[in-house]
Amino acid sequence: MRRTKNKKGATRRTSPADAAVRDAVDFLLPTYKRSPLVFTHGRGAVVFDAQGKKYLDFLGGIAVNALGHAHPRIVKIIRREAARAIHLSNLFHNLHQGPLARKLAAWSGLDRVFFANSGTEAIDGALKLARLVGGASGKTRILAMENSFHGRTFGAMSVTHTEKYRAPFAPLVPGVEFVRFNDVADLEAKFDAPVCCVLIETVQGEGGIHAVSEEFWNRARSLATQHGALLIADEIQCGLGRTGRYFAYQKFSALPDIAVVAKPLAAGLPLGAILTTQKVADAVSPGLHGTTFGGGPLACATALEFLRTVEDSRLLENIRERGAQLRAGLEALARKVPIIREVRGEGLMLGIELSVEGAPFVAAALDRGLLINCTHDTTLRLLPPYTVSAAQVREFLRTFKAVLTQTPRVNAPAESSAKAEPARAITAAAR
Ligand SMILES: Cc1ncc(COP(=O)(O)O)c(C=O)c1O
Known about the structure:
Blueprint: E1 2-5, E2 11-14, H1 16-27, E3 39-43, E4 46-49, E5 54-57, H2 60-63, H3 72-82, H4 97-108, E6 112-116, H5 119-135, E7 141-145, H6 154-158, H7 163-166, E8 176-179, H8 184-190, E9 195-201, E10 203-204, E11 210-211, H9 214-227, E12 230-234, E13 258-261, E14 272-276, H10 278-281, H11 297-312, H12 315-336, E15 340-346, E16 349-354, H13 359-367, E17 370-371, E18 373-375, E19 379-382, H14 390-406
Parallel strand pairs: 5-17, 7-8, 7-9, 9-12, 12-13
Antiparallel strand pairs: 1-2, 3-4, 4-5, 6-14, 10-11, 13-14, 15-16, 16-19, 18-19
The chain binds pyridoxal-5'-phosphate.
Pyridoxal-5'-phosphate binds near residues 150, 234 and 237.
C-alpha cells in the first residue's frame, strides 16, 4: 500500500495499481477511453492484472507483442544491449542498424531502409519520399483508401479516412483524395498524371480486417508504373509475419515501391521502418529526412533478434497452422451463433463481424479472462502472438463460445447495422 495525496491535498492509502490509475486520471491528457484494469506482467500468450488474474492475450498490445510477453530471447538481448549502449545517435554507425536493414531487405524484396520510431512517423516519411520523387515533375496528389487508418501525425492523419479523426485538425495536408477500397473503376477514374503515390493497407486493420483484392493491387501497381507514381503498402499491422507470410503483399507477384512496417518490429520497443527500392533511394540525400531516436542500437538489436526468432522457430508455419485452427473453430461457431455474420482475415489477424455491437462482448471476454478488442463497432479483432499454442487456441475457442452465447447484446448503431438482422433490442443471448 502507498500513501497518496490527491490534487486537493487529501491523503489516502491505496495500492500501487489504484495510485497509478488515480495519477493517470488526474494528470494525463484524456486521449484514451481506457478500461480501469491495470496489467502488470505476462509470459507468452498470457498476461496478468494487478489482482493476479490471468488473461489469454489475443490482442497482443494491438499487433505488437508478436512473440508474446517476456520471450526469453528478447529479454536476453534487451538486457545485454541495454548494458552496452541504449542510444548513440545517427551521426555514427552502430552494430545493429545495417544488419537489420539487410535482413528487412531480404524479407521484403526491397533494397533500402530508413528507421523511424513509430508507424505514423514511418508513414509520414513514406509520403515525403513520394513527394520528393514526384514533386520535381509536379506530381503531388496522393491517393489513399476509404476505410483506411495510417496514424495520428499530420501526414498520416491526412491519409486516414475516418472523418472524426481528421475534422478537428483541418486544414490537413493538401492533395489527398480517397478511393473506394477494392473498387478498380474508382481507382482508374481518380488516377492521373499528377498522382505521386497510392497508399494501401494490404490488410486494413482498424477498418475491420479487409484484405486488398489481387485485382485492385495489380491495377494499382500497373497505374502507378504507368504514371510514374509510387505504390506504398502500409504493412504496419499486417506485416512481418502476421498473415503467415513475411509481408502480406507477398501473396501477389507485384512488389510495392515502398513498404512501411512498425508494430511488431522490435518486439515491443518502439521502432518503425520505411523499406524502398534503390530507384527511390537515388532521390535521397543527407539532410532531407532524419530522426534522433530511430534506428538506435537497443531497438535494432532487439528487432534483429525478433526476425531471427521468427526464422529459427519456424513461426510462419505456426502462424499458418494456428490461424487455420482458429479460423476453422470460429467458422464452426458461426454456424451455431447467428450473430456472427462473417469471419475474415488470414493467419493470426482475424476479424469476426457481428450483427450487433461488439463492445459488450469485449467486456464479457475480459470478465472471463480473454483479451480481445473491437474495431468499427461490430468487428471483434484477434491478434494473438505468433507463438500461440494449439491448446491456447482451443481454450480461446471454448471461452469465446461462452462469451458469444451468454452475453446480452446491443443492436449495432444505424451506420454499421445497415446489413444487420431486424431490430432485437437488448436480449439474453443464451442459445
Ligand atoms: C495500418 C496502420 N498504419 C499505421 C498505424 C499507426 O501506427 P502507430 O500507432 O505506431 O503510429 C497503425 C496503428 O494502429 C496501423 O494499424
